[in-house]
Write a structure and sequence with these properties.
Largest sheet of chain B: 6 strands, parallel
Number of helices of chain B: 6
CATH superfamily of chain B: Flavodoxin domain
Number of strands of chain A: 6
Largest sheet of chain A: 6 strands, parallel
CATH superfamily of chain A: Flavodoxin domain
Radius of gyration of chain A: 16 Å
Radius of gyration of chain B: 16 Å
Distance between the termini of chain A: 15 Å
Distance between the termini of chain B: 19 Å
Strand content of chain B: 15-25%
Structural class of chain A: alpha/beta
Helix content of chain A: 40-55%
Order of helices and strands of chain B: EHEHEHEHEEHH
Number of domains of chain A: 1
Helix content of chain B: 25-40%
Largest interface: A-B, 32 and 34 residues
CATH class of chain A: Alpha Beta
Structural class of chain B: alpha/beta
Oligomer: heterodimer
Shape of chain A: globular
Number of helices of chain A: 6
CATH topology of chain B: Rossmann fold
CATH class of chain B: Alpha Beta
CATH architecture of chain A: 3-Layer(aba) Sandwich
Chain lengths: 186, 184
């Protein structure tokens, strides 16, 4: 039994990554519930602002991450790396005492219209997760390339069967990863 | 000088007493005689990048300054072993504009950090991002100022370490030559 949240790195309405995040609850194994995290939109990080207190949006996101058994980051690749808006949210929560990603199981997914499916972003995200002391799930990796061919452009539904299958495999693996981590903690 | 190089700096930190902001402010005084260095317009007002939004006027202002410049120096801290989100958000906006300003633009990198690596992990991620926007990134010498606490004045935040000052000067000299070599 695990409660997992998705953090989506795209803010646009018709985002393939949001469609991907929306597809996850139905693909999750029994016992895993998946919900969307609070918004990643918060002021641009500035240590002088932090001195006046964390923005409510940063606190809300951090609380949701702390309360979750695991986090799935579903995000596009911007300029061969992590979107600035998502990185900004990470910059805020990384400064907190009781830093929410510490020892947290984290899993990565990305979709892009190109052939690499966001891989360059994911390996930068893995570097960041080392800094944050998160436990990042290894394999299978989810890189949804040529995303425009894999989602229904009317309903936003993930329709590509091979992609659905590998996501199910990842979520099953992630569920075991979370359970193993919980037993270790107990 | 009649054909001076016009170079702009982009600082990756928004806080007032930032080592990196101090370093960026120092550069005009260390530049070779044929190089004029000024700060690029800021990005602190940029909204979070969202393809559904029109390009904000402040983004266009920064883009205009970048297009008009012969070269760009990015001076940024490392946050979470990579590029600060606020700076990356600015690059995400700029990258989506027409006549994308970083294309074929000479860019040099500098960073300062209190740790032993001087922001180098940020710089190597930045090189990857700059490849995506087709910038011409200057190679060596690299300016990665480690243990910044010992090298900047605790009161004024001014860079006081002479070997570091000399290295920055060397980079600016070599960057000037690089800009002239690759200029179209």
């Amino acid at each position: 039994m695990s409660n997992v949240i998705t953090v989506c790195g795209s803010l646009r309405k018709a985002s393939f990554n949001r469609m991907l995040a929306n597809a996850l609850p139905a693909l999750a194994p029994a016992g895993m519930t998946i919900k969307a995290s609070p918004s990643i939109e918060m002021p641009l990080y500035n240590a002088d602002l932090q001195a006046q207190g964390f923005p409510p949006a940063a606190t809300a996101l951090a609380d949701a991450i702390r309360a979750a058994d695991g986090v799935i980051i579903v995000t596009p690749e911007y300029n061969y790396s992590v979107p600035g808006a998502l990185k900004n949210a990470i910059d805020w929560v990384s400064r907190m005492t009781d830093q929410p990603f510490a020892n947290k199981p984290v899993c990565l997914q990305s979709a892009s219209m190109g052939p690499l499916g966001g891989a360059r972003m994911q390996y930068h995200a893995r570097t960041i997760m080392v800094f944050l002391d998160a436990f990042v799930f290894n394999k299978p990796e989810i890189f949804v390339g040529a995303a425009q061919t894999k989602f229904d452009d009317k309903t936003g539904e993930l329709k590509d069967e091979a992609t659905r299958t590998i996501i199910k495999q990842q979520l099953e693996g992630f569920e075991k990863f979370i359970e193993r981590h919980k037993q270790h903690k107990a | 000088m009649a054909n001076s190089l016009n170079i702009v700096t982009i600082c990756g930190s928004l806080r007032k007493d930032s080592y990196n902001a101090s370093l960026a402010r120092l550069l005009p005084s260390l530049a070779p005689s044929d190089m004029i260095i000024t700060a690029a317009p800021g990005y602190a007002s940029f909204p979070h990048f969202n393809q559904d939004l029109p390009v904000p006027a402040d983004v266009m202002t920064l883009c205009d300054a970048l297009r008009a410049a012969d070269g760009v120096i990015i001076v940024a801290p490392e946050y979470g072993w990579t590029i600060p989100g606020a700076l990356k958000n600015a690059l995400d906006w700029v990258s989506k504009t027409k006549d994308q300003p970083f294309k074929d633009k000479p860019v040099a990198l500098q960073s300062a950090s209190v740790g032993p690596l001087g922001g180098s992990r940020m710089q190597y991620h930045m090189r990857q991002t700059l490849a995506s926007i087709d910038a011409l990134v200057f190679i060596k010498p690299e300016v990665q100022i480690a243990f910044a606490k010992d090298k900047f004045d605790a009161q004024t935040v001014a860079l006081k370490d002479q070997p570091t000052i000399d290295l920055v000067k060397q980079q600016l000299d070599a960057f000037g030559a690089f800009v002239r070599r690759v200029k179209v």
